[in-house]
Every structure is written in structure tokens, then in C-alpha cells.
Design goal:
Strand content of chain A: 35-45%
Radius of gyration of chain A: 14 Å
CATH architecture of chain A: Beta Barrel
Shape of chain B: globular
Largest interface: A-B, 77 and 72 residues
CATH class of chain A: Mainly Beta
Distance between the termini of chain A: 28 Å
Oligomer: heterodimer
Number of strands of chain A: 9
CATH topology of chain A: OB fold (Dihydrolipoamide Acetyltransferase, E2P)
Amino acid sequence: MKLSRCVAAAGLGVLLGAFPAAAHHSFSVEYDASKPVSFEGVVTRIEWTNPHARVYVDVSDAAGKVATWNLELASPSALARNGWSSRTLKVGDKVKVQGFDGRAANTYRMNATSIVLPSGRSLFSGSADDGSPQPNR
Amino acid sequence: MRKVYSLVAVLAVAAPPALSAVDGLAAQAPAQQQPAQPQGGRGLGALGQAVRRPPPPTTPTPRLPDGTVDLSGLWVGGGTDGDIETGGGLKLGEIPVLPWVKEYMAKVDPTADPSSYCLPMGIPRKAPYPWRFVSDPAPGRAAQRIFVIEEGNIHSYRQIFMNGKHPDESVLVPTWFGHSVGRWEGDTLVIETIGFNGKVWMDRRGFPQTERASVTERFTRTNMGTLERVVTIDDPGAYSKPWTVRFTARLSNPGDELIEYICNENNQYGGAGGFGAPREFPVIGPPATR
């Protein structure tokens, strides 16, 4: 798996629209909209829990060192209403992930905005309604 | 770990959503403040909690056999989480805060919102999750109690004593949701609540609600799919005069039901932000009294 981490916020404003709102917690106290992250990795654990579902993904850097990222998703109820179930993703699935890094350094925690399966199916994830930047589509 | 940095702009654009978000933010943004998104349109772009919903039905307001308005159904919205002032139809600065509140809010720690630690949002704050009225003893008979069953923010409920009275202040125990009595005024359900514990943040900005607060809600089902909620907050402990906010709830999708939401199950709040839970959630009030 290859890790590519994007901190280039330059083009971000074009892609993402700031969005006021709310949910379990404010996006901005936990995550940094100026630190988008993307990588490919392998799902190692799934927690279909409240207030947020979580997916843990092992990611290797160029030197082969593995880091486990903790992906914060929406609530199971919101995910279910969008067509997810606790069985949508499985341990061992290879995924492409996008999201935003935590404010605290090196915690390997992110607010996930997209998870794409090898089949190309894109899954919802981000804990929206929380003030997080959202793709403008 | 050496990180390889690269632009992911292409990926960001190329990853289409499985569903297009349409109106999920109706959950906390009432229709009159944020017009409903066109069905299947560009939508709000939100992920996760932005749930795709068709426009609510506009058929006539349903009624029970005795003629009373039937409030049943799964509702979404009817309150706000983020900003009660603009979300409730007011302009910024319009809520008549007392000087201590202005000072308090200028310094409030945004990480200390009790609701982020799975404590109640109180009244009138609403999480972006569905809720419903349930009558006791049964629909079709004069209700002795009406319950509001909330999926989120913490799987809670409110209890409204119909045609009841508040306990005397000497025995009233302050609580997160207070003590509610209800009555019908024509086709409008009026709920008056006192006995708050003073710990609630009325929105994410931190508008306080003191133990002196009285909240009056007026629910009117204007058609099958629309429920207007007008809320007046009279809290001389924090505000110089009563103020009113307006929200609209909409009927959720046919077949949608409440889903379990046990907030404390796996709350990792603060882990990514690098802060821990406050050790206590204080009663909020002017410095001289605390």
C-alpha cells in the first residue's frame, strides 16, 4: 500500500465548499480542514458504534513502515440511511481513503470523507453536519 | 515515518458519491432559513449524515377520530444544533444577552460542549437525527402524557404532562430536560417547560440556559409533511427579555424508523483534537453567583 498525504490546500478551495452546521461534535475542534489526507490501505478493524462508526486502516509508507489510521465516520444510523450496513466493508478490504487529519499531531486519526472500494464503489463516510468542508458536487 | 506528499485533487474530483446528498441539513436547518434542495440536485454536498430524502408530502394535516391533530410520524429537524440564533431565523447579535453572557461566550471553550460528551442537548436544541411524538395511553384517546422520543443526540426522551401542572419550586428538581406540561390551543400543541439544570448549551456557540429559564414551544402540523415549531425562551438569568426562534421539522422518508444511537458506546471525542474531557459540566451563571 502506498501512502500519499496531501497538505496542499491551494486547490482545495475550488474543490471543497465550507459548510456550516452540526452533529455529534464540531469538525473544527477535532480536525483540520487545511490538512486533507488521502491514502490506500487495508481495513483491519470495523467498529459499527456510536457516536461514530470507525474503520481502522493499515497504511504503509515508502519505507514499508505501517501505520494504523483511525477513520471517524458518521453515526451508524446516518450511514444506514445512506445505504451502508455493518457488513458493507470487511476486514481485509483494500480501500482508497480521503479525509482530514486530526488537529493533534501524529495521532493517525482522520475524519473520513470518502472510502472507495477496489470495485470503484465510493462509500459515504464523513461525519457531516459538523461544519466540515464538504465536496462541492 | 517519512510521508510522501502529493496533490489528490484528481482523486477528490473523480470519486463520485454513492448517493447524492439532498436535504440532510434540513435536520438542523429549517426550511425557511435553508430552502429545501431540489430532489436529485447538487444538494448540500455533505456526506454521512446528509440523508437523501424526497420532498415531504403536502397532503392535508391528518387528524385523530376526535378531531385532534395527529402528530404521529418520524420527524427530522425542528431545531438546530449549530447556531440557534441564525438557525432560528434571527440575525447575528439579535438574542438579547446580558453582559455576563456576552463575556462568557467570548471566552467559552468550544471543546467543552456537554453534548459532545454524550450529555443531553436539552430544549430546544436538536441533533440532526429523527424523533417522534408518542402518546400515552394511546392514539385516539385524550393523552395524559406525550413523549418525545429522540434518536440522538443520546437516545433520550422527553415527557410532557398534558393539562398538568408544574411542581412547586420547593420540590422541583432541576434536570437537563426540565419539567414539561402541555395543552392544545386549537390545532397547536403548546409545551411549557421549567426546572432546567443550567448546564445545557443551547447550541454549539454556547448560548447558556440558566436554572431560571422557561421555554415555551408551539408545534403546528401545517400539512402531512410539515411541522412548525415556534420556541420562546424566557430566561432572566441570561437574557434581558424573552426571545423567539422558529424552526420547521419535516416528515422523514416512508419506512424510516428510529435507529439505536447509544452515544457513550465508543465516544473518542478529543482523540484527534488532542484534548480530554472536562472533569465536570458546571451549572452556568454569572460569575457573582458561582
